[in-house]
Amino acid sequence: MSEDTGKDSYEERISGLTSAEFARALQTFCDKIEFGDAAQLNSCVHCGLCADTCHYYLASGELEALPAYKLNLVSAVFKNQHTRLGRIAPALTGAQALDADMVSRWVDSLYGRCSLCGRCALNCTLGINVSRLIRLARTTLASVDLVPPELQSTVNTAVDKGNNMGIPRQEWLDTLQWLDEELQQEVSDPAAHLPIDQPNIRLFYTVNPREPKFFPLSLLATAKIFYAAGESWTFSSDYYDVTNYGLFSGDDEAAGVISARLRDSMHKLRANTLVLGECGHGYNANRWEAPEWLAGAYGFEVKSILEIIADYIRQGRIKLDPSRNQKRVTLHDPCNLVRLGGIIEEQRFILKRTVSDFVEMFPNREQNFCCGGGGGQLSMTRFAKRRIESGRIKADQIRATGAKIVVAPCHNCIDQLSELNKEYKLGVEIKTVSEMVADALVIEH
Amino acid sequence: MSPVLLLRLGVVLSAVYCLIALTILVARTFSFGRPPKYAKAKGSATKGIVYAFGQGLLPWEKESASKHLLTFLAGILYHAGIFAAIFFLMTTLLLIKLPDIAIRIVRLLAVIGLLNGIGLLIKRSALPYMRFISCPDDYIANILVGLLLLATILATHYYVFQFVMMAVAIMLLLYIPVGKIRHCVFFFYSRILFGTFFGRRGTLPHPPTQD
């Protein structure tokens, strides 16, 4: 923090942007716009009906959180660059140049008041993909190193160290060895183990590094399910991180580097299916966006662990006893997995066979509310207060169900829900789908 | 050339200009490129597009509509009035004499459209959050369309107002390509893109429950 200006180095960097940097940012903005983006930037009629689809606006009532306002910030620059009236009479259409003031507003609203959850896009009367356009602005900012430093640091760690927590290889292997012993005890089988770098297998399983670091038992839960199903699977000793914060920072290049590692590991292991652990944005990034970042179709299947578990149940490969999970359970739908990912019914199919008292929260499925943890918000500590405030909508939804357990198939969501649990005194347990399934597993030797 | 003929010619020329300008605008939009999609689709883009133009337009499918039914309805009636006015303008230009019943229907739709347009304008002006997201273009577009509706209503009663209607139509047609009314074209692209995006990903139409 500068004593003279009261600004931190990031804010000072914005006010000190050079004309060359503005030109570079604009070039990126124009280069990245595709036909669909241009069409949608010409579409908004400012009907304002998107207002209460946004958890930020609902929770705070701040006008800067309105989806239409956030879209306006992007279309203002587009109009200034690409429409005649926007250049001749900018005030008439709300056009504005990309200057320091606009950059500040982009950072404040497009990084600081949006979790890229896509709820406004789903409900837009015209169908404008607002979150995609907001990410386009983030990409523009990333091109001149204006990603909020805390978020950039997460991306850098993933690029430099191979996973977003910077877990050294030996620590990862030690954790797996310890879990190996735990699994043997858990299933009473000394032959049970967690395979590492096994080639020619069916599934290559990837995880959120928060699991080995803070929640190793959730890894154990999945390993137990694989064991029960007699699955042919493996971990990788080097690249196993399902997360990709490049999706949130907007940096396509870094995002491509991170996702390419999983693709290359698939080739190295000669596996059939890349299985993405319970991570919402990891699913969106690796299933939907990575082939676009890398400009090439994957020659293998990419599936969520939820699809795999649902298949086990359908095929009778695992046996479940729902009476082992007696408490009332509700389900949180991670935006990147459900609305933006298309994994909607699998988790419900699994939970209805895993727990004895399952209740939906409302709204749910693709209309779910974001918990507030997406869009890189968990990394951007400078916006933490807003993140917790925006989570009030989710907290109210949870409270209304009367559930004792909230299941969230996403570790980012779990982190945010844990904070909401404390802040709003919800008194719930928060678990992954795999943990619930593992608790209900009937293992027959 | 008589003033009447001049006005008719003005409407035709401004309509031609409007169409050409919108075509150029769409062509420019296409010039941004459409890179191929590499991710394997889970659902169907076609089904998504069908949903976007069918079931997806129903108010209960979108929270933005279901929570704001009055505004949603006002929007529909406003547009119904606009289409009626355009229809009447075209018959006037082509010297087609409409039966009384048709004129009455046009008048009724235009009146309802105008009232709803005024309502939407008041909403935009009165609510702080609506003012916050609005720019002069929003008001100009609404006022120009409102004037066309008013002129249409009067023209269905008094022949002389047909000239006013044509004069307003010229202004409106010249304004369409530069202002927000260009959404008359981009609406269709947006809905196609919406359907393609959520359709490919398997989010929409709603997948069946797995019980």
Describe the 3D structure.
The complex is a heterodimer of chains A (445) and B (211). By secondary structure, chain A is α/β, with parallel strands linked by helices. Chain A folds into 3 domains: 9-146, Fumarate Reductase Iron-sulfur Protein, Chain B, domain 2 (Orthogonal Bundle); 159-314, Rossmann fold (3-Layer(aba) Sandwich), CATH 3.40.50; 316-440, Rossmann fold (3-Layer(aba) Sandwich), CATH 3.40.50. Chain A is 52% helix and 6% strand. Chain A has helices at residues 9-15, 19-32, 35-41, 55-60, 67-82, 84-88, 90-93, 100-111, 119-123, 130-142, 149-161, 169-187, 210-214, 216-229, 246-249, 252-269, 280-293, 305-315, 346-352, 384-390, 392-401, 411-423, 433-440; strands at residues 203-206, 233-234, 273-276, 301-304, 328-331, 357-359, 405-407, 429-431. In chain A, the strands form 2 sheets. A 4-stranded parallel β-sheet of chain A has the order 2-1-3-4. In chain A, helix 17 links the parallel strand 3 and strand 4. In chain A, helix 2 runs antiparallel to helix 10 (130-142) and helix 14 (216-229) packs across helix 23. Chain A is globular. Chain B is an all-alpha fold and 211 residues long. Chain B has a single domain (3-29, 41-200), classed as Up-down Bundle (Fumarate Reductase Cytochrome B subunit). In chain B, 73% of the residues lie in helices and 0% in strands. The longest helix of chain B is centred in the N-terminal third of the chain and has 28 residues, at 3-30. The mean pLDDT of chain B is 96. Chains A and B meet through helix 3, helix 5, helix 7, helix 9 and helix 17 of A and helix 1, helix 3, helix 4, helix 6 and helix 7 of B.
